[in-house]
Each structure stands twice: as structure tokens, then as C-alpha cells.
Amino acid sequence: MTVSQHVNARTVWISDVHLGFKDCKVDYLYKFLSSVQCDTLYLVGDIVDLWSLKKRIYWPQEHYHILLKLYELADKGTRVIYIPGNHDDPMRRFAGQKFGPIEIAIEHEYTSVSGKKYWILHGDAVDAYMKYDWLKRMTGDAAYNLLLFINRWGNRFRRLAGMPYFSLAGQIKDNIHGARAAIERYKKQVIREAKKRRYDGVICGHIHRADLETTDNFVYANTGDWIESCTALTEDYAGNLHLLHCVDRVELKASDRGVLEGNDGELDAA
Known about the structure:
Layout: E1 7-14, H1 26-35, E2 36-43, H2 50-55, H3 61-75, E3 79-82, E4 98-99, E5 102-104, E6 108-111, E7 117-120, H4 128-132, H5 134-160, H6 168-174, H7 177-196, E8 201-204, E9 211-215, E10 218-222, E11 231-235, E12 241-246, E13 250-252
Parallel strand pairs: 1-2, 2-3, 3-5, 7-8, 8-10
Antiparallel strand pairs: 1-11, 4-5, 6-7, 9-10, 11-12, 12-13
């Protein structure tokens, strides 16, 4: 379902942008941010890819324009909260401070329209795969880089054929048993930790797999990424959570279950 190209939401969450990395879908992100009007914008980690920048300097003007757009939103009254991830980990030392109008926090608690308490974090801190298995992580990185290569060139051919963007990497990953198992393992870990802290739900990123579902009245939301899926999470003023797919047009992601009030119409809910 296509929604209004003007996204008017109470809150927006994005993560895993990876500015400074060649596969960042910066054009789609800039178009999305230009369409957004919201009270609060959460940047849920890996906004700037310092790992990639250490390997080689890649910073085209379009990446700089994203930072300017974030500052512009903050200057116009949007509260912007930046929760660093593992790829922008040095930013964590500035937790509790501000970069201009942008707040820096290790994690955050969010209260929804309905009064639910959500734990907001990037997700690497509870990912045992990241913390304990260096060899598997490096092997996984090599395989992931291959998927991104396939995604990049596959979509170049699709564009030449007049076809819309499609996450080939995501499709391949969804059909690999080991990848699906790792995603489910991560999801269970995050949910378990959030429940232990007595939250009603959790909103995170990190694994580049957008998701939104409620199980036993507990909400799990993953904002996805801007490398493969180009997704964002929103809460409207009626309390509905939605995943948006933001490429050639802004639309509800096919897997969106419409958590909470289950609104099925436009997201321009001024």
C-alpha cells in the first residue's frame, strides 16, 4: 500500500545508515528525510560507518547533505536523539552531551501514545555473536560483502531495465538457513533482555532486518537499514507503529502488521 509522500508522525526511528560506506542508499534516505515531519527522530546506531572510513575515505557530498538534513530537522523543532552503534562506537563517549541540537545517549526509554514503555538501543550490546565469535563474525562479514556486491550490480541492471529497486541481498539472506537462525537468535536475546528490564517492547537495529510484531502483548520492532532494505519505523499520533519501505516511493512494508491500533490508512495523520 502506498501512503502519503508527506510522512507526518509523532516519532520516527531509523538505523544502520552507514554514511561513509559505498552501499549506503543515500538518495532514498535524503528523499525520505525531506518528506518527514515529526516530534522526535531517533537515530538508532551505525549512522556513520567509522569502520569503513578507517579502511578508506569515502565521503561524497550526498553523505554530508544527510548530516545537514538531520541538523535542519533539529533546528526546526524535531527532537533528534542519536544512540550510537558498534560502527560509530566512539560517539558513545559523548553520551549525555549534545552535538549542536542533537542529543547523544547510550540507550533510551520511550513512552508511546498508549503508555507503553519501549527500550531503544542499537542492539550490538546484547548480540553474543558480535561479542564472542570473532572468526564467525569475520566470515559473516565476507559473505555479507558478497551479498551487497550482488545487490549493487543487480539493481544497476534493474534500473537500466526500468525496474524498481529490490533488495536482492535481503531476499538471498532470507533464504539462507544460517542467516535466518542468527536473526531469530538475536531477536530472542533482545526480547529476553527487554523483558528482564520490565519493558513493554523493544526497538532496535543492528542486524539489517526490518521487523515489527507483537507476541503476548510484547512489541518487537527492528528499524532495518539503509544498505539493503531502506526502511523506517514510525508511530503516528493515534499510537500505531508502522514499518515504511522508502525507495522510489514511501509505502507500508509488506510484512507490516500495524502494531497497536492497527491503522490501515495514510500515515499523514496531522
